[in-house]
Structure formats: C-alpha cells, structure tokens
Amino acid sequence: MESRNLDVLFVFQSIADSTITLKSTFSRAQQIFGDEILQSTVVVLTKTDLKEPALTKRMKTVANICRPENVPYITWVNNSTESIIEDSQLNKQLAELKAALAKVKPYEMKYMEIFEKKVEQLAREMMDNDPTNNITKHILIPSQKVHIYNETVHLNYTTVQRAYSDEEVKRIAKLTQPLYKEIPVASYCEREVEVIEYEIITEERIKWYTTGFWIFSSDNSIPYETQTLRRKLVKKNIIEPCIKYVEPPIQEIEDALRRELKVVNATMDFVTEKMRLESSFEDMIITISLHDLSYYKSKVAMHLSQAKWKKG
Fold this sequence. Notes:
The protein is α/β, with parallel strands linked by helices. It is about 30% helix and about 45% strand. Among the domains are: about 5-115, Rossmann fold (3-Layer(aba) Sandwich), CATH 3.40.50.300; about 165-260, no CATH class. The chain has helices at about 20-35, 55-65, 85-105, 110-130, 165-175, 250-260, 295-305, and strands spanning about 5, 10-15, 40-45, 75, 105-110, 135-160, 185-210, 215-245, 260-290. The relative contact order is 0.16.
C-alpha cells in the first residue's frame, strides 16, 4: 500500500474448480479498487496439466468472462514432484506471461484513494443520519475561574498648598500694586551723637611732718596719690536699627503672594489589582457517539459486498 502504483494484479484460478467464480472475483476486485483495476489484471490458470473431463468447458467459461473485460489469461504448470516440465515448456509459459503483461497498464493508486474518499463520504452520511448513534447527556462539571478586579481605597488628609496659582499671582499683583504707596523695610542706619565721657586724673603728692628730740630735730615726708574724675563731652557715630520706606516693585508683591500658603483637605485614591478564585459547577450538554466513522465504513463495505448499491 506504500507504493503509488500497482504493476499488475494476478488472479490465480484453479482449473480444477468451477471457473464461474472468476466473475465474482472480478466483482470483488472492482469493489476494492474500482472498475479500472481490470485494466491491470492478468488471470493465471493453474492445474491445467490435470486430465479434467470439464477442462474444455471451464476454459470456455474463462474466455467468456475475461474477453469482454479485455483481461488477458494464461495457463501455468508448476514444477513439482508429481509433474516435471521441460525447459521449453517453461520458456513458453514465460513468453506467454510476458505477452500478457504487455497488454496491461499499471494501476495508479489514486483510483484507490478516490474510492476510499467515496466510501468515507458514504460512511459519514450514514453516521450523520443515524439518530440512534448519538446519546445526549447533561452533566455537571466543576470549574474554577480566576477573576481579576480592581480595589480602590480612598484616603482623606489635610495638606498645605499654595494659596494662589501662577495666573492668580500675576493678576492680584497688578491689581494691588497701586494700593501700596510705601512699605516699611527694616534696615540699619549710622548717625552721630554727643556723649559724656569720664576720665580718671591721677596726681602724686608729698606730706611733710617734723619730729623733735632733746638734742636735735628732723623733717620727714610721706608720698601719696590722689585721683579725681574729669567729665568731658565727645561726639561718636553709632549704628542702630531704623525704618526705611521704599516703593514696592511688583516682583516683591508676586513673591509674597507665592509664599502665602493655605491648609486644604485632600483625597488620595489607591487602586490595586487583585485576583479572586471562584469555584462553581457548570451544566454542560455532551454528545456521546456509540460508533465512530470506522464502524460506518465497515457497514458501507458490507453493503457493497452484498451489492445493495449500484456499481461504481
């Protein structure tokens, strides 16, 4: 069956038996291979060396079956212990065989494939039209499904944010600048003041005194210092905080507005992806086939063998 061609189909028919069965053999071959198989068939008649009374009648039956189908046939005698043939007879048989093979053409297996497809088509139609072949049942099948969902958590809190947007800062600064005539700016100023200072004046002095004795007298001295405070008026420069008034530029107003903050309530949402496993039972309808396609192919072959359908 792996070959793409059959060179020849040999049908061996014993002349010792009834040759009318050759007709059913041809029919069987056509059922298997198709009508074209007879164009590749050679009939080999055996036992022709036996002295059968009905040999001539059976040979005529073979001719009546083979000639309408253009099937060549030859006679063949084997070498055996009971019958030994000469080389000339063997060469004659081989020549007849070669001539018979020249009359047939190889059988292409595509005809077999076409026939098999036809049988399969008939078998499928038979299976589809057989209501007793399919059984329908309801069954519960446990199933688990994974569901993916999003969970949102809302968080409320207070925060500090800018009081004004950039657009509002520029708009408010332009509107309020004319209202500011002077704004105090802390600074340090230097000025001249008069102050009274005291200085210590130190002077050295001597005190004299006299001591007397019977015989003579002498003068003595005691040195000492005196200190006095002298007040004088001086001028000096001091640095102290002072207030200056300047015209506010619009940039300072904008900076002040941008630094202004406010406390607001805010909400933040956290979205997380979660999975949930759910178990359940599903009601399913299943169809159970009692017989597969090969069963119906065999039924088609049985119908063909019983010749219930038309040939071909």
